[in-house]
UniProtKB/TrEMBL annotation:
This is Nucleolar protein 10. Residues 528-558, 633-688 are annotated as: Disordered. The keyword Plastid does not apply. Its main location: nucleus.
Length: 688
């Protein structure tokens, strides 16, 4: 809850603080209330007392139980039950509501005037009937004795709709081209309407004749007011049988006695904004007038300001809760503000706890900072010559200084320092000197990487700034200040190699372009010094001469590139000769390499054979495989082909098989020799 004070009047803003989104779950809301102190300390007097986007009008039923508000978007009406401190119902409408009126004591009979010339009637269950008026309406009032609705708008006629008979009656013909607002006196039921010409016409509903005319536009212009255009009537409100308050589109409020054509008092808001609402507060004889920026409360007899409020968002409507100190506003924001001013009256019975809460806050007062006061220290008071006021009611002690009235501060400063203009003049001269110093050439620290490139970019930036100032163009972004190219001046890997072939070939072109740019800038400066335009050619030099000069530059650049190419070819030739000499001097020695176990040695001839084989078609490779015996193709009984492949054996397997074959042959030969010896021995014994 936010507390403000003006003229020692405490104003408690009950809707201050952060609001929680509707789509949050109860669990998340409780978690946020535990974490956030501001959410935990806020006072939500009526739950979800807000609109989706904007609230336009707000009213209280006669029994004080229901608060109704209309707004957008989508166009809708919301009814809040004060006994339950929550929303009772919500109804969406087809078009935006200009204004509405509660005809019954509760919410059971409501009339809406919509922007599409529609008049919509709602009962307790919802939509009841809808009709249309001939012209666009801006306001309407209900005449209780005859059950007539009086509609005013973009027409000179006042349309009457009788709710008892259910038909339109003869309209009232006025002298105005258009009417903005209207109201009916609650005592003698005099009908008054405010016109776009700044006049108020009063009509008697019984005779349907005009009984009075007030020229408020002429009366609103006083010696102290400054207006632009003709003031039109934007607000109108009766008080009792004789008093009437009128608000104009230029920000003035006029209080009339119906027995006189001259206003009793004229109050100016000094904002030049149309008056949105005028209310009467009878306990303290106050008038509450509001425009889109400020709500002012002032005495209707003297015009003295009682207090004022400036909400954060623009105001659309103001509603004073009957017989209490509560004030509600419809704003250009989702949240509708609720203010409680204990001086105006007690809190309503459905929120009587506010009285106890404000009493506790007043027992522990907190120091507040005032907008109309100036904070000064003891040294400031001595400089102003007001040190003798310490301890008086003109100074209020606060922290290490005092608060004093801003008007008194300005008067004392003018008297204590009559040469304030000289100080102001010296300060302006100092600022001009600082501006000229900023335009001078400033030394900038070059980066560690690509220093030459950075220096070149700085020079180009200065030249482009001069050209853009003369031509009134926007400056182009600098690469040194761009984060995308920051690494180019920090990482050594991005260092420009000036000895590379690309740089040496492009460098003549870059240098020639920079020289040409400098020459062009010099020509432009000479033209401006002579008072000529930039499009004209400099005197004493024809366009042919300039073209010949440019052709000479191109010839020089071509020669420079050719020279660099010739040098590059010579350097490359020298490098080749040096490499050839080194190759001739080096002696090649035979080297032996050991093959790892399990790997085969394959000569280059085998790889060449494989490459040749891979180049052949599949048919040729199959024929070759058949010749080698690794492939066998045969016909089947079904008529298809059957191919059988024999995998090639590796060199190691082949050697192993050959070793086994030799081993078998050796064993076979040994067995033969052994059997031969046995046979010979047997024959020898036989001979003996």
């Amino acid at each position: 809850m936010q507390v403000s004070s003006l003229n020692e009047v405490k104003i408690y803003s009950l809707s201050a603080g952060r609001s929680l989104p509707e789509w949050l779950s109860d669990r998340k809301k409780r978690a946020l209330q535990k974490k956030d102190v501001d959410i935990r300390r806020r006072i939500e007097l009526i739950q979800d007392f807000e609109m989706p986007t904007v609230s336009t009008k707000i009213k209280v039923s006669r029994d004080g139980q229901y608060i109704m508000a209309v707004g957008t978007y989508k166009p809708r009406v919301r009814c809040f039950d004060t006994y339950q401190l929550s929303q009772k119902f919500e109804r969406c409408l087809d078009s935006e509501v200009v204004t509405f009126e509660i005809l019954s004591d509760d919410y059971s009979k409501i009339v809406f005037l919509q922007c599409g010339r529609f008049v919509e009637f709602h009962s307790q269950h919802g939509h009841y009937y809808r009709t249309r008026i001939p012209k666009f309406g801006r306001d309407f009032s209900y005449h209780y004795p005859s059950c007539d609705l009086y509609f005013v708008g973009a027409s000179s006629e006042v349309y009457r709709l009788n709710l008892e008979q259910g038909r339109f009656l003869n309209s009232l013909q006025t002298e105005a081209s258009e009417s903005n607002v209207c109201d009916i006196n609650p005592v003698h039921f005099l009908f008054a309407m405010g016109t776009a010409e700044g006049k108020v016409e009063c009509w008697d509903p019984r005779t349907r004749n005009r009984v009075g005319l007030l020229d408020c536009a002429l009366s609103s212009v006083t010696a102290d007011t400054e207006i632009e255009g003709l003031p039109s009537i934007s607000a109108l409100k009766f008080d009792g049988a004789l008093n009437m308050a009128v608000g104009t589109s230029t920000g003035q409020v006029l209080l009339y006695d119906l027995r006189s054509s001259n206003p009793l008092i004229v109050k100016d808001h000094h904002y030049g904004l149309p008056i949105k609402s005028v209310q009467f507060q009878h306990q303290l004889d106050l008038i509450i007038s509001a425009d889109s920026r400020i709500i002012k409360m002032w005495n209707k007899d003297t015009g003295k300001i009682f207090t004022s409020m400036e909400p954060e968002h623009d105001i659309n409507d103001v509603c004073l809760y009957p017989n209490s100190g509560m004030l509600m506003t419809a704003n250009e924001a989702p949240k509708m503000n609720i203010y409680y001013i204990p001086v105006l009256g007690p809190a309503p019975k459905w929120c009587s706890f506010l009285d106890n809460l404000t009493e506790e806050l007043e027992e522990n007062p907190e120091s507040t900072v005032y907008d109309d006061y100036k904070f000064v220290t003891r040294k400031d008071l001595e400089n102003l010559g007001l040190a003798h006021l310490i301890g008086s009611s003109l100074l209020r002690a606060y922290m290490h200084g005092f608060f004093m009235d801003i008007r008194l501060y300005h008067k004392a400063k003018m008297m204590a320092n009559p040469f304030a203009y000289e100080e102001y003049r010296r300060e302006k001269i100092r600022q001009k000197i600082e501006e000229t110093r900023a335009q001078r050439v400033q030394l900038k620290k070059l980066p560690k990487v690509n220093k030459e490139l950075a220096l070149k970019l700085i020079e180009e930036e200065g030249e482009e700034q001069q050209i853009s100032k003369k031509r009134k163009q926007k400056n182009l972004p600098n690469l040194l200040k761009d984060d995308r190219f920051k690494v180019m001046f920090e990482n050594p890997d991005f260092q420009v190699d000036e000895q590379s072939e690309e740089f040496r070939l492009l460098n003549p072109l870059v240098s020639k372009i920079s020289e040409k740019r400098k020459r062009k800038l010099k020509i432009l400066e000479e033209l401006e010094a002579q008072g000529q335009e930039e499009e004209e050619e400099p005197e004493g030099k024809a366009s042919d001469a300039e073209s010949s000069e440019s052709s000479d530059d191109e010839k020089g650049w071509v020669e420079e590139v050719r020279k660099q190419r010739k040098l590059l070819r010579q350097e490359e030739k020298l490098k080749r000769q040096e490499r050839l000499k080194e190759d001739q001097q080096t002696l090649l020695k035979p080297q032996f390499f050991e093959i790892k176990e399990g790997e085969e040695f394959r000569s280059f001839k085998d790889s060449a054979k494989k490459q040749k084989l891979m180049k052949k078609t599949l048919e040729d490779r199959l024929k070759l495989e058949e010749k080698l015996g690794t492939l066998n193709v045969s016909d089947t009984t079904v008529g298809s082909k059957q191919a059988t492949f024999k995998l090639k054996k590796s060199e190691q397997q082949r050697k192993q098989q050959e070793a086994e074959k030799r081993h078998r042959q050796e064993r076979k030969s040994l067995r033969r020799s052994a059997s031969h010896l046995k046979s010979r021995r047997g024959r020898g014994q036989l001979f003996h």
